[in-house]
Write a sequence for this structure.
């Protein structure tokens, strides 16, 4: 907190900008990297060594994870939201068609994903006191746990006791993006609603880990502030969780802000090259973190970034409630850029020389070998 007070963020920014080719050469020469190397690897100077970094990140990922890429799909159970986040299509002030799935609808929709071959599912919702509360999510997870290898949630921040109940009902992963780690920017883009509380959101994954969840996932939302500082903070956050809760697996995502309903444009866009550098830097410093890439990114770019250290990818995503059965025309959260079918994504992963894991038989096949 204190580190990011007024002026603190700017200091971190100047630090990253000040590294030169000499600093980068010193870091690249090291056989292994630590957290102190992260700001150097995120610097403009390091961008000139991107090919080097990419080769290292690729080799390190193969060493730690082999060639396995886990595929998952998101299921939007509600787009009701009380928050007024300037950048989000679900903003309470947007005249969006709202929809909340009943438990039965959510299960039916999930089983469509199951029938398509998915065994890893992510339940997503907007933040609203009346919809997608912990009791509802527990009911949905309880019905899905026999059919899915993994049930993750990306919903409003909950209390530790609520996470404990969800874990009992089969939830094994909790995702929560801080959006921006800069408290000043956070206050500027969260204009109303319970999400305005920066500290409560920041503590979410700790509460989940303390409740005993198997996996937590974090990220900034790239485009709200300087991506180099955001990436540094995301790395520190991940390192803290990995060290303090060593039984819990940590994943880091790389969502880039897309124009959404309401017409918000990214304030500080992250380029494709910058995204590649960010992925490499976090892979080199956190060799055991899962790195996740969603369908926010176009197909060709996803195929290209895969080899830099990505270990999990979504596929065939729909970002509106009832998106899979097409019953529902309710509003979507953002535009999907990679519109390939799950089978096509799996084929592209296999063509790149990796093993897509999304169906039961894949897992048996892998363990048999």
């Amino acid at each position: 907190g204190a580190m990011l007070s007024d002026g603190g963020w700017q200091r971190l920014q100047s630090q990253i900008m000040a590294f030169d080719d000499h600093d980068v050469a010193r870091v690249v020469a090291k056989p292994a990297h630590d957290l102190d190397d992260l700001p150097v690897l995120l610097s403009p100077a390091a961008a000139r060594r991107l090919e080097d970094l990419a080769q290292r990140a690729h080799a390190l990922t193969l060493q730690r994870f082999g060639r396995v890429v886990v595929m998952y799909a998101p299921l939007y159970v509600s787009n009701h939201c009380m928050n007024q986040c300037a950048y989000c299509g679900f903003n309470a002030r947007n005249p969006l068609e709202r929809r909340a799935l009943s438990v039965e609808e959510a299960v039916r929709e999930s089983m469509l994903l199951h029938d398509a071959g998915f065994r890893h599912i992510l339940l997503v919702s907007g933040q609203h006191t009346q919809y997608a509360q912990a009791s509802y999510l527990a009911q949905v997870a309880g019905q899905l746990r026999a059919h899915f290898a993994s049930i993750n949630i990306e919903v409003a921040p909950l209390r530790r006791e609520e996470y404990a109940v969800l874990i009992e009902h089969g939830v094994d992963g909790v995702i929560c993006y801080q959006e921006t780690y800069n408290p000043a920017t956070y206050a500027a883009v969260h204009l109303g609603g319970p999400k305005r509380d920066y500290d409560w959101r920041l503590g979410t994954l700790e509460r989940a880990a303390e409740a005993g969840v198997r996996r937590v996932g974090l990220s900034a939302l790239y485009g709200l502030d300087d991506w180099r500082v955001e990436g540094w903070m995301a790395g520190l956050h991940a390192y803290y969780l990995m060290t303090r809760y060593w039984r819990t697996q940590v994943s880091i995502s790389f969502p880039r802000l897309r124009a959404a309903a309401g017409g918000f444009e990214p304030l500080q866009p992250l380029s494709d090259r910058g995204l590649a550098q960010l992925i490499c830097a976090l892979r080199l410093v956190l060799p055991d973190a899962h790195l996740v890439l969603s369908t926010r990114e176009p197909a060709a770019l996803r195929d290209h970034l895969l080899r830099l250290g990505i270990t999990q990818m979504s596929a065939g995503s729909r970002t509106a409630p009832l998106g899979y059965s097409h019953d529902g025309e309710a509003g979507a959260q953002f535009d999907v850029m990679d519109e390939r079918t799950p089978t096509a994504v799996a084929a592209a992963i296999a063509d790149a020389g990796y093993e897509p894991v999304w169906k039961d038989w894949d897992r048996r096949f892998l363990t048999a070998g």
